[in-house]
Specification:
heterotetramer; A alpha/beta; B mainly alpha; C mainly alpha; D alpha/beta; B: two-stranded antiparallel sheet; D: alpha/beta; Rossmann fold; 5-stranded parallel beta sheet; 16 helices; about 45% helix
Chain lengths: ~250, ~300, ~350, ~425
């Protein structure tokens, strides 16, 4: 299993707050990694740094041994690192299908075409296929603005997934999803992820969720790594429990 | 050397005029995110009402004959500006602009464009088409000899008024409770209304304040020029230029922008008369290219 | 700055299109000449508005489209003044389009970096620069006197004097239909949807790996070309051009008409343009002394009471309940592209 | 699949049908017959809004008044005149669209008007195309008839050359020793041409004159501090300006406050309107004319028609007529004269439009301005200049001009068919 993504001594601070402090991490092909940690421990910042939205003050980011530290989000995405968002970033005036069609057109690099229509049959079916995987069997013609929060979160991931990345970063895929939907949503996402064999890194609050789906867990604290191990080992670690769950020791 | 002094002087005069007409525009934008084309009309109304009142009260023209002391004419101009600003301003805001306030920046702008068309004819209906020449306040001050050419005193009064108005605006925003409310509304509209601030009322006040500035510009420029139909249209595009140069929403920026444009145009008139108009928009473009948000424009951040 | 636009259909059903086209062609000879002329002008300007709308769909408001309107017109005018041998409408229009597109290719480089009000202001600045040049370069442009643009033939044909206007009408109509079709293909294409994506969420577009700036730039080129086309057509129709083609009020008018018509369809700009020209003409006729007041009031009413523009009224008439039936309608169109 | 393929066929079918349909369209209507009409429909076009509104409405008022008078006296050739008015303000395409509406929809018999050069240059070819008599009442650009020849377009006032050449002649007489000159003119055709012709003419009279400044303020800004400083720094003997209307008044006020008129002789080719607007406050020692102005010279009493015109106008609109009013009068009285001449030529028969136009060639007619002679569509009139004096005349409500000079039409107008500038350079002289 080769290393696909690597961060080398990456640091970034906002004023006094250290969001990333000398982070050196390696992510192997096909791994599913969960990131846990309290708010402000630098989880989202880590995703932003890797995808080029935030530039690190020190350190380098390597994708397949290529330095991508200074690349813009678009360039990073085109190399094969896609991300989803804590607050879903969707085209709310358009339908679910149209959102997906746009994602596919970009993925196929035909988004500059200005003569052939977006809705070619082949494309529509391909889009519907991806949507089906994520459980949008019907209502593909629904306007995104009318989707429930859970649906948006899934679609947000689905769009990133449709780009066929080799690394997929999911920023709190279940935040804002009602407790009873949580596992449903997560199941859907993880099934697809596992099937596709994409390297997935997901930021998550919920221990149970992480324990259930990750085969490796990173625990963030003030921009540093408190623990990095298999889920059961990590959650056995009292320091982690104290830190993350706030349990007394 | 003398030449330069004169250029500076002329620039200052034109700048004061520009500042008076653009400060209100940029202030309203800063608070309400609305680019008010009808601003030009408020300027026009101020000019017409001011000139008309002066002509009414001192029918003798420059001789200043009339029941009142000619010195009062300046007060009359001020009152005219306040009258226009505090009646027409809130009227426009409450009756029209408020209805589209939540529809982005373009629709309100276009709405004010419609109001601008309407008000242009309204002025014509009220005051007819004859030019109003109320130059009593202008000629009364006489002139001084500066750097070899003699120069009327009134333009300096104009500069004074501009400085005073700008200063007052600054005080109102930075030193009064209303100002604090305005600032918080600018910072975050939702939060402020959540905190129980009556945002609509703030908007009305802010708009009225901007309107007064516009009318003030009109009323005090009126004695220098002959007030004719269609004076509104020139002003607004100049004000656009000044405000974008200074940075939309920044009153201080408007002051700098006005000075830049004023001096540049004066210089053009003296050294390259061909380009007195061209330089203004060339500068506007240049500034926008190097500093997209103008010299003092804020930056917008979006979190994801 | 979010404009509010309904999903709209890009085009109504094909049947209606053909009927409409038939009427536009067939009725012309039987309506009074000034009406034909008015329609000709309305279509020519409608094309500029169409250009504005293409950008509006990406949430970009070009308050300076007078730049291309004037560029197209003056390209034709100056060519004739410089002694261009052929006085053919088609040649002049081609020239106008080429020049304005080239201009857009340069100006677009800068503008594509801007959004919101700043995009608008910078476009104003550019158009006002052209305005002051047209005004000041008296020896070249004839200052406010302007230039006369008289054509002697259309595609080599030389219609008799009494049919000249009709010929021009059909010429403009043909080009309009063509341009609208191109614009329609664009709006239905990936690039067109990318603009709507930008309207909704630029960040996501970048995170999909598409360049927002390039998308805007390419759309801007077509938008500028349409501006030049409209300008050149107006020039040869009116027969005389003056610098105020580039003045900010003219540009403002285009945005105005765009919102009047609505952004939901590629036909909306033409509708808006025709209605606008009619209103203005009757304003001149009905209240010669206060036509601005009348014109302003009408537009005020539309803005306040028909938020989606005139086209949205059609939409409301066309479907019982708006919103959810929309997709099927658009789907029907989509299906008609099956191959 | 099939539907897509059908499209071209269906489309071509529709277009084909439509074109066949249009083939049986009626031809263009032929121009009207020569039987006596119920009324003569006239449209008058001038500025009702914008900076020139005062002058436009002045002209339109005069038109209203004169047509009413004509109707009271039984109309033209026994036919009453009905008139309507249209705003000239707006972009060129608006103006042209309006013109077409007037001719094709309102079916007027003649259009009188057009002040702006751009507009008259744009309308003239359309008038030709629509074969409709169009009388230009003010538009003073020489390009109108030197760059095109029109059958249906007639101008009843002299073009700008009269004013510019007259101005040159006047300053040459008033300041025989003038060495330096400066100009401040509107930055558009009217200003450019005025200055051009003035300086060319002045060079003919004073070959060694130097130009100190040429200023081109953007029209209607109304704030002239910088320009005036520039002029004062230059201190020329003579300053030429063709600024007009509201912004000219602004210029006068600001220049007066700075004593510019004391330092140089300022000559204003359209200055006369300032007498009315500034009245008592008009500065002394300013040379001015009202484009061949008539109001003061010869004194109204000497021209009965003018006296009546002023009396009627001021009683109806309680103000003294401005020069556009006179120009409108020239057009209307010219139209009347042409009709009557044509009717006479047909001994009583009603003339066709073409016959009216024919009658107009080499037509002389009396107007409040004096005798106007129209030759081949264009007209000539005298130039009159004077200098503002202190003697305020309560009867008129403004100070009269003195040191009046009258330059006869043939001295200050190029002979038929010669290009203006060439004529000035080659053969303009005061002898």
């Amino acid at each position: 299993m080769g290393v696909v993504l690597e961060t080398v001594a990456v640091s970034r601070s906002f004023g006094a707050v250290k969001a990333a402090d000398n982070l050196s991490l390696r992510f192997a092909e096909g791994q599913v990694v969960g990131i846990v940690g309290p708010n402000g421990s630098g989880k989202t910042t880590f995703v932003n740094i890797v995808t080029g939205y935030v530039k690190p003050t020190h350190g380098r980011i390597l994708f397949r041994d290529r330095d991508i530290t200074r690349l813009r989000p678009r360039e990073v995405t085109n190399l094969g690192i896609a991300r989803s968002f804590q607050i879903p970033q969707l085209y709310t005036h358009l339908t679910v299908l149209e959102n997906m069609l746009i994602a596919l057109s970009v993925q196929e690099r035909r988004h500059w075409e200005f003569w052939r229509p977006l809705r070619l049959d082949g494309r529509v079916e391909a889009a519907l296929r991806v949507l089906d995987q994520f459980g949008f069997q019907d209502g593909a013609d629904q306007r995104v603005s009318t989707l429930p929060e859970g649906g948006r979160k899934v679609l947000d991931v689905a769009l990133s997934f449709a780009l066929q990345p080799s690394v997929l970063l999911l920023d709190e895929p279940t935040s804002g999803v009602s407790v009873d939907d949580k596992f449903g949503v997560m199941d859907t996402l993880m099934r697809v992820v596992k099937e596709s064999g994409v390297t997935a890194v997901f930021v998550e609050h919920d221990m149970d969720v992480v324990a259930r789906y990750a085969d490796r867990v990173l625990v963030f604290a003030e921009g540093t790594i408190l623990a990095d191990d298999r889920p059961e080992a990590v959650f056995a670690n009292p320091a982690v429990r104290a830190h993350v769950l706030g349990e007394g020791v | 050397m003398e030449q330069l002094a004169i250029v500076g002087l002329d620039g200052l005069v034109f700048a004061s005029y520009l500042f008076l007409v653009s400060a209100g525009l940029t202030f309203i934008y800063g608070v309400m995110r609305i680019l008010n084309v009808a601003h030009g009309s408020l300027y026009g109304l101020g000019a017409y009402l001011g000139a008309w009142l002066v002509l009414r009260l001192w029918p003798g023209g420059t001789s200043g004959q009339g029941p009142l002391n000619p010195a009062l004419s300046y007060v009359v101009l001020l009152l005219a500006a306040l009258l226009v600003g505090l009646t027409v301003g809130p009227f426009l805001e409450r009756v029209f602009i408020r209805r589209v306030a939540d529809r982005g920046e373009v629709i309100p702008l276009i709405l004010t464009f419609a109001l601008f068309l309407i008000l242009d004819d309204v002025m014509k209906l009220i005051w007819g088409v004859n030019p109003l020449l109320a130059d009593l306040p202008y000629s009364m001050l006489g002139s001084v000899s500066l750097a070899g050419v003699n120069y009327p005193r009134y333009p300096f009064l104009l500069t004074g008024v501009a400085a005073l108005a700008g200063g007052l605006l600054w005080l109102i925003v930075n030193r009064t409770r209303f100002g604090k409310l305005v600032i918080s509304v600018i910072a975050d509209r939702e939060v402020s209304s959540a905190l129980g601030i009556n945002v609509p009322r703030i908007y009305t006040f802010a708009f009225a304040l901007g309107a007064v500035m516009a009318a003030l510009g009109g009323a005090f420029i009126a004695p220098m020029i002959s007030v004719v139909p269609g004076i509104s249209i020139e002003v607004i595009i100049l004000a656009f230029a000044v405000t974008t140069i200074g940075g939309l929403g920044s009153v201080g920026g408007a002051a700098i922008g006005a000075l830049l444009v004023g001096v540049l145009r004066a210089a053009a008139v003296h050294y390259a008369p061909e380009f007195d108009l061209f330089v203004i928009y060339a500068l506007m473009t240049l500034i926008l290219l190097v500093k997209p948000r103008g010299l003092f424009g804020g930056v917008e951040v979006r979190r994801i | 700055m979010k404009l509010l636009y309904g999903r709209g259909w890009l085009l109504p059903g094909r049947g209606w299109l053909l009927v409409g086209l038939f009427l536009l062609i067939a009725v012309a000879p039987f309506i009074p000449g000034w009406l034909v002329f008015l329609l000709t002008i309305a279509f020519a300007k409608g094309l500029v508005v169409l250009g504005v709308v293409l950008l509006l769909r990406g949430d970009l408001v070009s308050f300076g489209h007078g730049l291309y309107y004037a560029a197209g017109a003056y390209a034709a005018g100056l060519a004739l003044r410089a002694g261009l041998p052929v006085r053919d409408a088609a040649v002049l229009v081609l020239l106008g389009v080429v020049v304005s597109t080239a201009l857009a290719a340069i100006v677009g480089l800068f503008l594509a970096r801007y959004r919101g009000i700043f995009f608008g202001m910078l476009s104003v600045a550019f158009s006002m620069i052209l305005y002051s040049l047209l005004l000041k370069l008296y020896w070249l442009t004839g200052g406010t006197d302007g230039l006369s643009v008289r054509v002697s033939s259309i595609f080599g044909l030389q219609p008799g004097a009494e049919y000249l206007r009709l010929a021009q009408y059909y010429f403009v109509l043909a080009l309009t239909v063509g341009a609208v079709y191109v614009a329609y293909r664009l709006t239905a294409s990936p690039l067109g949807y990318l603009m709507r994506a930008i309207y909704d969420n630029e960040i996501r577009v970048e995170y999909m790996g598409a360049s927002v700036r390039r998308a805007i730039y390419r759309t801007y080129l077509l938008s500028g070309a349409l501006g030049g086309l409209g300008g050149a057509l107006t020039a040869i129709t009116v027969g005389h051009i003056a610098p105020d083609l580039a003045y900010w009020t003219v540009s403002g008018e285009f945005v105005f008409v765009a919102l009047l018509g609505g952004t939901g369809s590629v036909l909306a700009p033409l509708l808006g343009s025709v209605v606008f020209e009619f209103v203005r003409n009757y304003a001149f006729k009905l209240s010669p002394y206060t036509w601005q007041l009348l014109l302003g009031s009408v537009l005020l009413v539309v803005i306040l009471f028909a938020p989606g523009g005139l086209w949205s009224i059609f939409e409301r008439l066309a479907r019982r309940e708006p919103g959810e039936t929309a997709p099927r309608k658009e789907r029907r169109w989509a299906l008609s592209w099956r191959r | 699949m099939q539907r897509a393929a059908q499209l071209p066929r269906v489309l071509s079918l529709v277009v084909g049908l439509a074109l066949v349909w249009t083939a049986c369209a009626p031809g263009a209507p032929s121009s009207g017959g020569a039987q006596k009409p119920a009324e003569i429909k006239i449209a008058m076009v001038d500025f009702m809004s914008g900076g020139a509104a005062k002058f436009g409405t002045g002209a339109l008022n005069a038109g209203k008044m004169l047509f009413d008078q004509i109707n009271e006296q039984g109309g033209i050739g026994g036919v009453k005149v009905s008139y309507q008015m249209v705003d000239e303000n707006g972009t060129v395409d608006q103006v042209v669209t309006n013109f077409r509406r007037l001719v094709l929809d309102e079916k007027v018999d003649a259009v009188i008007g057009y002040t702006s050069s751009a507009n008259c240059l744009a309308v003239a070819p359309v008038a030709e195309e629509l074969k409709k008599l169009t009388v230009i009442h003010i538009c003073g650009t020489y390009r109108l008839f030197e760059e095109g020849s029109y059958k249906y377009v007639i101008r009843t006032s002299s073009q700008g050359v009269t004013d510019s050449v007259g101005a040159a002649a006047y300053v040459a007489r008033m300041k025989p020793d003038l060495k330096t000159v400066a100009g401040i003119n509107d930055d558009y055709a009217w200003g450019r041409d005025s200055w051009d012709m003035f300086i060319h003419a002045l060079r003919r009279l004073k070959p060694d004159v130097q130009v100190r400044e040429e200023l081109w303020p953007k029209a209607f800004v109304g704030e002239y501090s910088a320009e005036i400083s520039k002029l004062q720094a230059a201190r020329p003997d003579v300053i030429h300006t063709s600024l007009w209307g509201g912004h000219m008044d602004s210029f006068i006020k600001q220049a007066q406050a700075r004593g510019l008129f004391g330092e140089s002789l300022v000559i204003m080719t359209t200055g006369e309107t300032a007498l009315l607007t500034l009245s008592r406050d008009v500065p002394q020692g300013v040379a001015m004319s009202g484009r061949g102005q008539y109001l003061y010279i010869p004194e109204p009493e000497k021209n009965e028609m003018n006296r009546r015109f002023i009396a009627d106008y001021s009683s109806q609109f309680n103000e003294i007529p401005v020069y556009p009013a006179y120009r409108m009068a020239q057009s209307i009285l010219g139209l009347k004269a042409a009709y009557e001449k044509a009717i006479q030529a047909k001994n009583g028969g009603w003339p066709t439009q073409e016959e009216v136009i024919a009658a107009w060639d080499d037509l002389t007619y009396e107007t409040p301005t004096g005798t106007i002679r129209t030759r081949s569509h264009d007209s000539q009139q005298q130039a009159v200049y004077g200098i503002t004096s202190g003697n305020y005349d309560p009867k008129w409500g403004f100070p009269l001009l003195d040191r009046i000079q009258v330059f006869p039409a043939d001295k200050v107008n190029p002979p038929l068919g010669t290009k203006t500038i060439q004529w000035i350079d080659s053969s303009f002289t005061l002898q």
